[in-house]
């Protein structure tokens, strides 16, 4: 029996169903929740969509988004749940408490690290997004795809591939995107809302960070700072800092881009991005942090100057090793 | 006889062939030149690829790009030419002088305004890029598509759709992208080089512009300035200013983004971008400029302050009209 067949058996009896994704939801988490919720309701199910965290404003255009409830506001406990885009059960955050102890949980995800916490586990690490898996299911089951469903799935593909720019952008992703556009969705408006739109505060933070931009003599490392007072002044949420570090990495010839930001008087959060030479996951690990080869982070006690010194000297020695290989 | 059949007849005799695109070439112009040159050489033709302007550094990864010659360095005059992505013959710039007076010219383009200056005209306004038309031809003729050819065509699609974000991103564009990725091209590296990579100078210009960012009281208009001395200090080419105006337009709630930049002591160049309310093409026309509804520009004599005043008051009155409708 393939994974979708198990899921279909589950759907024969499951009702009501809780649909949940990870806390601090990204485009894929939100879109997957909405797409799954939409199809289940078409199938006549009583569905509650929930998240621990509020939905970022830039996703407010998504059809049905106002129906995703905050965990706090739900009192019901569910015998059936579908967890989306969660590599482990903890990623659901406080939504876990809405799932009955012996509930049947369907775990649909594309993270290779998924620990198979579900009763039924549909894990496809080769998928670029959980939305991609949902679209596979929708197609296999021959559910009709209207604009509302297409807009949700498209948003998931778009965001988890970084606007079709990351290495997970497969031929299949484009084939799915082509089919979704045939429903008549205005993909340019989705891209505008999700990928282009910024707040005034984000630009003010970016400007402040860029005013501190420095590059190493060899041109391989670029870094920027954000002081606590800048963040207090301009950032409404942690999200507002997203993407700033990429500006350093994106400079022609740079391999490692770094953002140092003061979180309080004695701690500096460090974000790393790299192109191909330095494994910044390893680098971050040296400071007790973590992440991937191309994107990682850590926290360092001390002043900005101390953090600069410790991080930049290690980056330089890693680069020297790389150049010697 | 369809357009491609005429083109095939042309190819029976044409040799040597000049392949040319528009001056200040963008990704589509460069990619189309390389893709066409590559296929014609596979067909055994003697091909000279040429452009009036140097190729921007960010396209230097494209296979064969070093073979595109500057018009100045070519002394031969050609009896056959293929003009790509040029809405009129003037767009070839000085390359026109390399085409014999009674030459047979094939005009392949996707601009709706194309004036059909060719002997054979293959104009497809519904195509997102000239590269899309070339891929149609390649497929119809059943030419093999290897990675080198795929990388070129992909780059053309990618750049002319603004990374698949503009409204010209059709289902067909995604279908073509899916096929191109099947050759094994590393599309994420192309996106990185072409869409993400910036120069230090571009970031310095961006930082300077952002430091002047202002928003109207109603939040519908945002604008920035660049003074002559900033541009002299940081910009290597006009290209370095590209995209800066988008930051103003992209602010949440803003409809019109404007960049004012001093070109000399008494002239201000004004770039406009808009979301949906104000037709900035009309707006620019009021000042003797031009463009489209969503992107336009003009030049205004006077100081920055005078330009602000004249432009912003007209924008406000257009917005008032819009809101009254
Ligand atoms: Mn995901
Ligand atoms: Mn073009």
From TrEMBL, chains A, B:
Domain named DDH: residues: 17-156
Domain of life: Bacteria
Location of the DHHA1 domain: 238-319
Gene Ontology terms for molecular function: nucleic acid binding
InterPro entries linked: DDH_dom (IPR001667), DHH_sf (IPR038763), DHHA1_dom (IPR003156), Oligoribo/pAp-PDE_c-di-AMP_PDE (IPR051319)
Name this protein carries in UniProt: Bifunctional oligoribonuclease/PAP phosphatase NrnA
